[in-house]
Amino acid sequence: NGTSMISLIIPPKDQISRVSKMLADEFGTASNIKSRVNRLSVLGAITSVQHRLKLYTKVPPNGLVIYCGTIVTEEGKEKKVNIDFEPFKPINTSLYLCDNKFHTEALTALLADDNKFGFIVMDGNGALFGTLQGNTREVLHKFTVDLPKKHGRGGQSALRFARLRMEKRHNYVRKVAEVATQLFIT
Fold first, then answer.
1. Which domain of life is it from (predicted)?
2. pTM
3. Confidence class of residue 2 from pLDDT cuts 50, 70 and 90?
4. Residues 66, 126 within the same domain
5. In sequence order, what E strands does the chain have?
6. CB–CB of 148/168 below 8 Å?
7. CB contact at 8 A, 74 and 9
8. Strands, DSSP E only, in 11-63?
């Protein structure tokens, strides 16, 4: 009935205070809803979510999901539902919807993407190692390197400088391979 079912998803790095402020703004907007019944149910749902949010000092490591609203049971009775939980793995979605259903698509996506990919990004300045699973990305390790550049001086020593440059580059690639083995294989 109406649009008083709230789906709220907060990603791990978000702030509770930002979400609380957003809910306060929504409360102000909802106060202008013309239909009395709908207005009261939306305001009630927003208030319930605000109270639930006060139980948390910070967003849990995997994020926070809150569903709140009035549903109609099989017997045709209205029942108020207020569910809050931390997903089983990090959820990288931010969502606030006040609608006629609970939006669980982001949670379904968590179940779907189980393939984990490892990435190595390297250039002349350093390397970065990370993983990607669904839309959850994580930087495992990164380091910078100072490789000597080619320069026009050296005269007789130009070949020796070139050898030193190649040796340093080889050591860098070897270090990247060692770290990759350590992070992704062992």
1. Eukaryota
2. 0.64
3. low
4. no
5. 5-10, 64-72, 78-85, 95-99, 116-123, 126-133, 136-144
6. yes
7. no
8. none
Residue finishing a domain among 112, 137, 169 = 112
Boundaries of domain holding 98 = 5-112
Could you tell me the CATH number of the domain that includes residue 155?
3.30.420.60
Q: How many CA atoms lie within 13 A of 15 on its CB side?
A: 4
Q: Which residues contact 150 (CB under 8 A, 6 or more apart)?
A: 162, 165
CB 52, CB 27: distance < 8 Å: no
**Per the structure, how many domains does the chain have?**
2
30 and 84 housed in the same domain: yes
- Asked if pLDDT for residue 1 goes beyond 60, the answer is no
Choose between 130 and 149: higher pLDDT: 130
Task: Judge whether 84 and 66 are in contact, CB under 8 Å.
Answer: yes
Residues 17, 91 within the same domain: yes
**CATH at 100:** 3.30.960.10
With a pLDDT cut of 70, the percent of the chain lying above it is 98
pLDDT, tens only, 65-104: 999 988 877 888 888 889 999 998 889 889 999 988 899 9
